[in-house]
Amino acid sequence: MKPSSVIDAVATGKNIRMMLDKNDLTVLYLQDYIFNFGSSQAIYKWLRGASLPTIGHLAILAAVLGVSMDEIVVANTSAYPAKARGQKQEYGDDSTEAVRKLLAPRCGQLIIPDVNAKATGERIKQLMSDAEKTVRDMQGIFDFKTPQAIYKWLYGTSLPTIGHLAILAAVLGVSMDEIVVIDVTILSMPEGRIISAKKDVGITMATAIRLLRAGKTDTKACG
Fold first, then answer.
1. What is the pTM (predicted TM-score) of this model?
2. Which CATH superfamily is domain 97-217 in?
3. Which of 106, 90, 139 is nearest to 212 (CA)?
């Protein structure tokens, strides 16, 4: 199975549309305040299944919608069973009180994840070691002619596509959210103005979503 066929783009687009509707979010809101796109075409392509978001855009969607990346993406990775599962330990496990306060939703503020490519590469390397997978093993799994793409992921000079990320998760025995490591930017709502950017948070999307969900009740008092 090719990485491009692992993701059901149409079903993923329907998921995004359903979650937007559930949260009363519009395409225009995403375009203007979240992604700062010049037009809405990219978002409509996601909704139609004509294209897929990048990992960075997927992480932002997940945070805005309050769900995991795995809940958004519809994937079939049955051809890539995990033979040696990773330990699923949190990257750095930065669930300190300071990080909890940082990620606690506030009235009129929104947390936006910034994918840290270098830290994500380190996380992939850690999980490969946990699962006893070598670069050569991964090259064979992805059927790459050379290992250069994998080394670029490990060095943080590029990020996997969503299809490649789904395969990595299946092979390493973790969720996609446990692979991606983020920093955070805090935006004011609805203007989309950056209040602050924290470039040394270094937590996985899994940890971020867990903390965001735990703090969701705090925003109900905002009325």
1. 0.86
2. lambda repressor-like DNA-binding domains (1.10.260.40)
3. 106
